[in-house]
């Protein structure tokens, strides 16, 4: 199963906002980067991802699930931009900071560590296990 990471500025869209959407989840709209869009186009219903607070906190705070595959982004008429829907699954017991990821040698190849600007990114199965363990899961 592929794993992913979704980045959001918590003052714009936080983990609590995502949780409040319940089982219906929310469209992960507004992404205007081709690589991030292509990552969303590769996602399948049931894929899991980390919810990451960027700018404020800079930490993985929860796990989300893709609840709807890629479709046109409702926030634009431009047909180039798609998005998926995600729903909150569970919080991490202990947020995992970017600094922790950068200093853990097991995560040295992680996209988050090497390309922190990409808003939707893949996570390897090994990286997934490490972050889950660091997060108390």
UniProtKB/TrEMBL annotation:
Q: Which domain of life is it from?
A: Bacteria
Pfam families recorded for this chain? EVE
Sequence ranges assigned to domain EVE in this UniProt record = 3-133
The record's listing under Gene3D superfamilies reads: ph1033 like domains
SUPFAM superfamilies, alphabetized: PUA domain-like
Question: What is the protein name stated in its UniProt record?
Answer: EVE domain-containing protein
């Amino acid at each position: 199963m592929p794993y992913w990471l979704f980045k959001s500025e918590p003052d714009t869209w936080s983990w609590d906002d995502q949780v409040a959407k319940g089982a219906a989840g929310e469209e992960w709209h507004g992404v205007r980067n081709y690589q991030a869009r292509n990552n969303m186009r590769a996602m399948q219903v049931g894929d899991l991802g980390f919810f990451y607070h960027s700018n404020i906190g800079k930490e993985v705070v929860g796990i989300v699930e893709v609840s709807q595959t890629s479709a046109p982004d409702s926030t634009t008429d431009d047909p180039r931009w798609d998005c998926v829907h995600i729903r909150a699954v569970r919080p991490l017991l202990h947020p995992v900071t970017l600094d922790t990821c950068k200093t853990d040698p097991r995560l040295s190849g992680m996209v988050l560590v090497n390309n922190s600007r990409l808003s939707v990114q893949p996570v390897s199965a090994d990286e997934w296990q490490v972050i889950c363990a660091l997060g108390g899961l």
